[in-house]
UniProtKB/TrEMBL annotation:
Organism, as annotated: Desulfovibrio piger ATCC 29098
GO molecular function: amino acid binding; ornithine carbamoyltransferase activity
InterPro entries given in the database record: Asp/Orn_carbamoyltranf_P-bd, Asp/Orn_carbamoylTrfase, Asp/Orn_carbamoylTrfase_sf, Asp_carbamoyltransf_Asp/Orn-bd
This protein's name: Aspartate/ornithine carbamoyltransferase, Asp/Orn binding domain protein
Keywords associated with the record: Transferase
Residue ranges of every copy of the Aspartate/ornithine carbamoyltransferase Asp/Orn-binding domain listed in the record: 150-289
PANTHER family linked to this entry: ORNITHINE CARBAMOYLTRANSFERASE, MITOCHONDRIAL, ORNITHINE TRANSCARBAMYLASE, MITOCHONDRIAL
Family: Belongs to the aspartate/ornithine carbamoyltransferase superfamily.
Highest taxon above the source species: Bacteria
BP GO terms, sorted: citrulline biosynthetic process; L-arginine biosynthetic process via ornithine
A Pfam family annotated for this UniProt entry: OTCace_N
Amino acid sequence: MPRHVLTLNDLGEEGSWLLVQQARGIPDAKSRTDFMTERTAVLLFAQDSFAERLCVSAAVRQMGGSLVFQGATGGWKSEVERYQRQMLAVIDYFVDCMYVYGIPGLATSVDRDLVQFPIINAGSPDAHPAHVLADVACMLRYTRDDLKKARVGWLGCTNGTLFSLIEALRYFPFSLQVALPPLEDRPTLETYARHCGVKVDFVDTPQQAVEGCNFVYAGCRSGLDDELAQQWKVDDALLSHADQKARVLLGTSPMQAIEVASDILASPASLLLLQSENRLRVHKRLLHWVFLENERAI
């Protein structure tokens, strides 16, 4: 059966730890190999995301593979949803793996019995496994491999990264405290945390979210008006509540994230570049993971 990575659950604890450590072990994130030579990956993006397309494309191309990209236009999404069996069988003739971006409920909407090639979730509203594995690698670096020392604060709206961050608590021993803006659906996240069997501290304000944290996420800002966006901004005043050596991570692309003061974003406290590097590393290791037990008999 093909291996898929739609959520961290597909990897499990052993696989999640293995991928993180293997990703960290790549000497040069931009190293080129021939692992994907004569393999083609199709990228089906239901929403635009330059950052995700860039990262996934770089991983496949630097490993010698070929790419086919299809954006939100063209009606493919409704065709695949309506004629899943037929469309997946047709796609199987032309490609060796598929990246999907921007489709909610991907883990439950794909009939795995119908798919004869690996599917990797490049990001959805309710899961972003590659992002979180890359961020765990960042935390390991700055806690000297002791995630029990990682106290993580999230401020901002809900997105796939936050869902996967909660799921990651099953496998990685960091702590997490979350503040959501007004009108965000907190009960859904609380229910999800209970479903995962993990403890998440839900608080009310950005200051409470970052209190004592050594890792601070600037989450998604969708739905925030200008006044709220300023109140939730990551600046020196907010970080005064965090650990003195707190590092700042982005929980989404810079254009969609809670604003981070420019001097902080340009400082050593910002892990933006390390996040990007580790995401490239993780996507390369994901390709190894899905293919090494996917080879078909010749």
